[in-house]
Amino acid sequence: MTENYAVVVIGGGAAGLSAALVLGRARHSTLVVDAGEPRNAPAAHMQGYLTRDGMPPAEFLALGREEIARYGVELVRDRVVEVTRGGGLTGVPGEGFTVVLAGGRTVRARRLVVATGLKDELPEVAGVAERFGRDVLHCPFCHGWEVRDQPFGVLASSPASVHQALMVSQWSKDVRLFLHTVAEAELSDEDLRRLATAGVEVVPGEVAGLVVEDDRLTGVRLADGTTHARSVLFLAPRAVPQTGLLEGLGAELHETPFGAYPVVDATGLTTVPGVWAAGNAIGFAEQVVHAASGGYRAASAIVGDLLMSDLDAAAQV
Is the same domain home to 70 and 96? Predict the structure, then answer.
């Protein structure tokens, strides 16, 4: 038998759990489908979230799962493989969605929250993947304080990496920008002026790998064999939005420098009626605190939307 829910939340990270908490407290039957692949899994701690600064991401999610369970929200470890419009849950024409899980379960929902996040694609430099989230980092707001005043490197992936090098210079005055595959000629005069003013040294040449000693980063090795002593390396992963389900439903996307994301309104409502998105499913820079807020906004909008739909349907009987 196909099970019916008011809302299915796809994704069990900060955005999905926050949405589920609000929906559960509003007495709506809610199912969270969690594939267990949070974006911040490589990080030992999360920072900048008031009252949760320094908490391990896994602990944060465990507490969230405990909280939603208090309100009768169901969470299943599975992956959504297909979503189609229609389901006939309430007799309202066209309302509802059929959701198929990898484990073989099929459920129906009146509304959806898509909080599937994104994946970080790392540069193919020896040692980077193994140390990502430790001393190979991407966000100074997430990790800058913890590595402050150490010798920083920044691995360029495009001329836009100049911005990252300038930003991290607020946490260390010893910063070197490794151009890697970016030619120095690609940097503008303004880029070079700002880098010089910030005291950032520009190092041409391709990076071949990292130097690691006693399980800690100690240097960056160039293809010509020279090594630069560094204890922290910042880089910009290529963001890969997880938009397959939204695209399958016909959601409109818009291009950004960090990939294509769904067009949403202030509550996270996509261009598909009944489908909201939150967290990194709507943008590259959604930190944990933003994701939790976005999930809350989406859920509160859904509560109102369901109420008005039910009142309108009852008035027509």
Answer: yes
Mean confidence (pLDDT) of the chain: 95
Element housing 149 (H / E): none
> What does 229-298 look like in DSSP terms, one character per residue?
E-SEEEE-PEEEE--HHHHHTT--EEEETTEEEE---TT-B-SSTTEEE-GGGS-TT--HHHHHHHHHHH
272 vs 186: CA distance, rounded Å: 41
Q: Say if residue 1's pLDDT is above 90.
A: no
Asked whether residue 242 falls in the same domain as residue 108, the answer is: yes
**CB-CB contact of 159 with 165 (8 Å):** no
Q: Are 188 and 164 in contact (CB under 8 A)?
A: no
The pair of structure tokens assigned to 190 is 């303004």
What CATH number does the domain containing 245 carry? 3.50.50.60
Domain around 180? 123-235
Number of structural domains (the chain) is: 2
pLDDT in tens, 156-170: 999 999 999 999 999
Q: Say yes or no: 284 and 311 in one domain.
A: yes
